[in-house]
Amino acid sequence: MLTQTITDQMGRTITLNNPPMRIVSLVPSQTELLYQLGLIHEVVGQTLFCIHPDDMHQTKPRVGGTKKVKMEVIASLQPDLIIGNKEENDQADITQLMAQYPVWMSDINTLNDALDMITGIGQLVGKPNEANTLAQTIQQSFNAFKVDVTKPKPALYLIWRNPWMAAGHSTFINEMMHRLGLSNLAIQQPSRYPELTNNQIEELNPEVILLSSEPYPFKEKHLAELQALCPQAKILLVDGELFSWYGSRLLHTVAYFEQLLPQLTHEKC
Fold it and tell me: Global pTM?
């Protein structure tokens, strides 16, 4: 069988079958991408959180979560490629897997990183033309999305409750917020995902607060808690997948942002 040598987004060079025929994906957004590229049979394992498409979620073997994989299940699947992500997967798990299998890792903070990941995986799995077309379509949709980013609205994007936790600097969510015309107040904190107290949220005085559907499943009942801290803020429940999934789901992000924009017009508190 032919082999190929390729460099991943962490600068690591790996050698693997060309093309790989037994792929385990440890990242939900990248799993969805593989199916978008037509690799229905080649994907032999995925995580519990790889929920799209639903028919694959229901039928494909599950290798544990993104943070705690089941090594024995992966071994039984005999993969010739494992695809992971620097942020989403546990470093100890990845180190153990790298000793046994070709592991391609992504490292994504920006839209350009995401597009490079899409084309990189396309090259990796023998679908370069399909991946290039997909990346170009996504890029064109963002190019056509016109928002005034010269006067961004101060905002917070919360991903957790008890304690409050926000998406901060050097995150893909931060990039999506910027493209939506929002200024992320959490980038002032040293952590990429800082914890915030009630007092800190009040002091930050956001004009917009976005409550993500994941990883914490914010619901309508949680709006009042934040409204009490900043009564004049515009608080919205948002689809976390369309802010944080950096694979083929980006095809739908701009249309979603266009629906959100009218709701973001609000006086600052």
Answer: 0.95
Judge whether 3-142 and 153-264 match in fold: yes
* Secondary structure letter of residue 186 according to DSSP: G
The region, left, alpha or beta by phi > 0 then psi within -120 to 50, assigned to residue 91 is alpha
The pair of three-digit structure tokens given for residue 166, joined into one six-digit string: 């926000």
The answer to whether the beta carbons of residues 79 and 63 sit under 8 Å apart is no
Fold (CATH) for 153-264: Rossmann fold (3.40.50)
CB 16 within 8 A of CB 40: no
Give the span between the Cα atoms of 156 and 173, in whole angstroms: 11
The 3-state secondary structure of 208-267 reads: EEEEECCCCCCCHHHHHHHHHHCCCCEEEEECCHHHHCCCHHHHHHHHHHHHHHHHHCCC
Whether 159 and 167 have beta carbons less than 8 Å apart is answered as: yes
The CATH class for the domain spanning 3-142 reads alpha beta
Residue with tokens 């009564």: 231
- Domain residue spans in the chain? 3-142, 153-264
pLDDT for 80: 97
Q: Where are the beta strands (DSSP E) in 8-71?
A: 13-17, 23-25, 43-46
Strands 23-25 and 43-46: parallel
Q: With beta carbons less than 8 A apart as the criterion, state whether 246 and 119 touch.
A: no
Q: Which parts of the chain have pLDDT scores under 70?
A: 266-269
Looking at the DSSP assignment, which residues form a beta bridge with residue 157?
Answer: 210
Token output for 138? 């996504």
